[in-house]
């Protein structure tokens, strides 16, 4: 059933969000997040003038950072809307 699929997906996303949040609170998670922020260019541009290949590589890194930030900052319902799309959200 559609509602069973939605509930299963919701619980999966909820557990994953919780895991991200728990890891970030650990000392190792804090060190990891600082390193990942640098590597993924969390606070700087990904554009490398004249080098579209490297720009795309850096955008890929940034996508990872943004996914993690989404899991840390958005409600489970917002994550469902973002990752599952409106079709699964309308099947509740």
Give short descriptive properties of this protein.
mainly alpha
Low-pLDDT stretches: none
Task: Report the β-strand fraction as a percent range.
Answer: under 5%
The helix/strand order is: HHHHH
Major sheet attributes: none
Helical/strand content category:
mainly alpha
Mean pLDDT: 90
Radius of gyration: 16 Å
The domain count comes to 1
N-end to C-end Cα span:
10 Å
> How many distinct beta strands?
0
Helix content: over 70%
The number of helical runs is 5
* Shape type: flat
Task: Summarize the structure in short.
The chain contains 5 helices and no strands.
Care to describe what's here?
- This protein has 92 residues and is mostly helical.
- The chain has helices at residues 2-25, 27-39, 52-73, 76-84, 86-89.
Can you lay out the helices and strands and say which pair or pack?
Blueprint (H helix, E strand, L loop, with lengths): L1 H24 L1 H13 L12 H22 L2 H9 L1 H4 L3
Helix pairs in contact: 1-2, 1-4
């Amino acid at each position: 059933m559609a509602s069973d699929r939605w509930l299963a997906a919701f619980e999966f996303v909820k557990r994953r969000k919780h895991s991200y949040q728990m890891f970030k609170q650990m000392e190792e998670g804090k060190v990891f997040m600082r390193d990942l922020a640098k590597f993924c260019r969390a606070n700087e541009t990904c554009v490398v003038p004249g080098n579209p290949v490297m720009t795309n590589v850096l955008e890929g890194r940034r996508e990872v950072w943004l996914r993690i930030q989404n899991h840390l900052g958005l409600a489970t319902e917002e994550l469902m809307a973002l990752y599952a799309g409106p079709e699964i959200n309308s099947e509740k």
